[in-house]
Amino acid sequence: MKKSTKVISLIVGGVLGVTIISTVLFANHGSAAFEEEKVLTDDITTYYSFSGTVDAKNRQNVVSHKEMHVEQVLVKQGDYVNTGDVLIISSEGEEIRAEVDGEVAGLYTKSDSHAIKGSRLLDIVDYNDLHVKVKVDEYDLKNIEINQDVDVTINALEKVVKGNIYAISKEAVNENGISYFTAMIDFDKDDSIRVGMSAETKVLKDYAIGINTVSMKAIQFDSKNEPYVMKTNNDGKLIKQYVKTGINDGTTVEIKSGLQVNDVVMIPKVDPANNAAMMHGGGM
């Protein structure tokens, strides 16, 4: 009987030990699976964004309208010409003149040479008057208008300049089944900005000042797509707190109701191992 009692005591002790250890491990894992974040007062501004490039407003691509013999080329690449200047004289005495002010940006012919109909002879570009052309798909067209102020980011220079939409094309160009319109944007003159540079144009969408906010990663959704956050109650247990959200900028979201400033929310941490398993079809 003493031996049996001893065995039972060992078993009970072992079970209690395992239970205690498991409880401690579970508690540690539970607290380690979340990070805390406080509700803050902040401002949020959102924008529509459109991609495009810097281009010259005025350019002339000089093309031969018929087969001709180029008698004399009166300009060289890099020359600045004015509207009306004679550029090329043919053997028949025909004069080809500049239609815009600008620089001879490309020269593709020479004196005493032959040009077939449609040959490109030279290009004139006015580098002193630039603008940005951006593509706007048909569904976003309602969000822009002429005389609207915008911010233009020149990507290569990491520079932001002020701009204004001065024209919007009346016809769309179809690309891969999507119809795009072109918006033309004047911007503050800057000698460091060159033709061909890529640009991002931001148009103000919405803004909110002095609002309650949390990070987007704090927001979760239930099976009915209702947003909620995790927080602890007075007993220290995790509970769902449903919230009403407002605008967001992709990083921070407005909380209209359900939380107050300085409330603490619990954000689930992503386990790299579990995340990798889920990506490969693992997990439960």
Describe it:
The chain has 284 residues and is mainly β. Among the domains are: 47-56 and 128-205, Efflux pump adaptor protein, beta barrel domain (Elongation Factor Tu (Ef-tu), domain 3); 60-125, RNA polymerase II/Efflux pump adaptor protein, barrel-sandwich hybrid domain (OB fold (Dihydrolipoamide Acetyltransferase, E2P), Beta Barrel). Helices cover 14% and strands 50% of the residues. The protein has helices at 2-32, 272-279; strands spanning 34-38, 40-56, 59-63, 68-73, 80-81, 86-90, 95-97, 102-107, 113-115, 120-125, 130-137, 149-154, 159-168, 173-175, 178-187, 198-215, 220-221, 227-232, 238-242, 244-248, 252-257, 264-268. The strands form 5 sheets. Strands 2-11-15-13-12-16 form a 6-stranded antiparallel β-barrel. Strands 3-10-8-5 form a 4-stranded antiparallel beta sheet, with no helix packed on it. A hairpin with a 5-residue loop joins strand 17 (220-221) and strand 18 (227-232). It is rod-shaped, with a radius of gyration of 34 Å. It starts with a helix and ends in a 5-residue tail after the last helix.
Provide a short characterization of the protein structure.
With 284 residues, the protein is mostly beta strands. The chain is built from two helices and 22 strands.
Quick tags:
50% strand; disordered C terminus; mainly beta; Elongation Factor Tu (Ef-tu), domain 3; four-stranded antiparallel beta sheet; disordered N terminus; six-stranded antiparallel barrel; 2 helices; OB fold (Dihydrolipoamide Acetyltransferase, E2P); 284 residues
